[in-house]
Specification:
Blueprint (H helix, E strand, L loop, with lengths): L2 H27 L3 H10 L3 H13 L3 H10 L3 H15 L5 H14 L2 H5 L4 H8 L4
Helix pairs in contact: 1-2, 2-3, 3-4, 3-5, 4-6, 5-6, 5-8
Protein name: TBL3 protein
InterPro entries: Utp13_C
GO molecular function, one term: U3 snoRNA binding
Amino acid sequence: DVTEIEQEEAQAKQEEQIMKEQELSNLLHEKRYLRALGLAISLDRPHTVLTVVKAILKESDGRKHLEENIVRLRRDQKEALLTFLVTWNTNSRNCHEAQAVVETLLKHEAPDSLLQYSGIKSAVESLLPYT
C-alpha cells in the first residue's frame, strides 16, 4: 500500500511550498528584491512577480532599481519574465509595469541575445497590439 507514502510526499511538498511563501514574504519585507524575483519566478507565480516589480517601482529611483535587478537575472529567469509580462500587458492596470520590464530588457539585451529567447516571436506578436 503506497497511499501513506504518497500522502507523506504530498504533505512534504505542501510544507516546502509554505516555507517558500514565507521566505518570499520575508524577502519582500526586507526589500531584497533580486532574491524575491528569483524565488517568485522559480515558483512560477506571475502575479507574485508582478507584485515584486510593483514594489520595486514604488521605491525612490524605482526604474533604476528595476533595471539593476532585471539585469542580474539569469537568462531562463528573463525568459519566464518575458512570458509573464505578455499577460500583464493586456491589462491596463498592469501595463505600465510590463512596459517598464520590456524597456529594460530591450535596453540591456543585445538583439541577437533576445532572438535566442524561447518564445520571443510569439511574445513580440502578443505585445505589439497592446504596446
